[in-house]
Design a protein that fits this description.
Belongs to the amidase family. GatA subfamily. Heterotrimer of A, B and C subunits. The chain is α/β, with parallel strands linked by helices. It has one domain: Amidase signature (AS) domain (Amidase signature (AS) enzymes, Alpha-Beta Complex). The protein contains 18 helices and 11 strands. α11 links the parallel β7 (269-273) and β8.
Length: 512
Amino acid sequence: MANVEELVKLSAAEMGAAIKKGDVSSRELVDAHLQVIEAAEPSVQAFLKVSADEAREQADAFDAKSADEKAAMPELAGVPIAIKDMIVTKGIETTAASKILEGWIPPYDATVIEKLKAAGMPILGKTNLDEFAQGSSTEHSAYKTTHNPWDTDRVPGGSGGGSASAVAAFEAPLALGTDTGGSIRQPGALTGTVGVKPTYGGVSRFGAIAMASSLDQIGPCSRTVLDSALLQEIIGGHDKRDSTSIPEGPRPMVAAAREGMKRDLKGLKVGLIKELGGDGFQPGVEARFNEGVKKLEEMGAEVTEVSLPHLPYSLGAYYIIMPSEVSSNLARYDGMRYGLRVMPPDNVPQTAANMMAYTREAGFGDEVKRRIILGTYALSAGYYDAWYGSAQKVRTLIIDDFKKAFEKVDVLVGPTSPVTAFKFGEKTEDPMAMYAIDITTIPANLAGVPAMSIPAGLSDDGLPVGFQFIAPQQRDEVMYKPAAALEAALEDEWNGPIWKSLNASWLNGQAK
């Protein structure tokens, strides 16, 4: 067996290939990652729950299969994975990083978990997030604060900072996240990893704890574009248990990624989003992005500037629609039906209303309460049309902007985040400043189109920058080809994958 550091620094595709060749077993990969988790967690704190026993059992069950059985399974068969704690896992505590669900052991698996198990992929554990996926820094978890592996004094982004940090820190080769306004892509940008939001409805949401149902989407976190393509093809496809699930199966994303690795983009029309840049965008972010655009041109892509005129209004529309849906979805956590129950003290009338009030006060954190209040107000009598109704009209205009843009170009590009990873506490006292970070990622969620972030290099501050690709609805493969091409071209520029340059001190002494 190769030493631990060599094993965990393989891509997921390389791990899958090594398993099929018989060079390594699934159990060896699981044990290697569990070793890194043990060493890294004091610094990174990406996991809320490590399911070591379950992962070993799943790996052993896979290793016991015959060679013919393994050959018939997906390329990632036997490769371990981490799961954002917003996704239900049978027998493993699922909390959405909230006290209101503390101790809940689901009796069923989400559809995506069923698919991972069918593919023989052991589950390493559940990763940290902003409570109920509401945040952009993973500082709003009820349990712990996840640190960015590139600089542990800085945030990993949010809400899926745990999944992105686990992948960046070599604690897991792959992870699942959920993306409502950028919760997969923005952490990907800040941690130097690949994050993908599939087309809305392209991956089943059955078993994903609802935040904002018209925006939520499960997607892959990985270190390479090909790894994300392989994972998305496993978890994608129609699910009759999800009423928003698209009837057709997954698109040919793996083939598109492999085609992109040839670095030939002749004939591809790329739209440079005019509105994503300028004030509020870090100079180092814009510099890396512009260098990436130049690389696309060098590989034959035709780049033109495209305007999405209503994009500046997306932030306002999102922060009315999303809290409104949060208010509705989280109403079920009232102490009567689901989750925690806190009874009023003896000197307070023991009514159902008081019990609900005390339960929600104790069970929800400040950011969740803020969004519930915003949403309840927007949906209240006399304000519904003025706020929620107007926001939905703006959403329609944004959808139309994307449709018109895709009549001119094949794929749109822009920075994933206007800034690199910021320090803890830097934005928590100013919610509007935190919300403004999402301006680059929110539009894709409002429009339901697929989008992905890949590492574009390091900014002048030595921190990762994300490059975002956006494709038309149900055409996810269109973004995989140029993303894989740019990834390959940047490896030449940066002397190998950006993620391999991370100084993961916790790997020192891990070799065995």
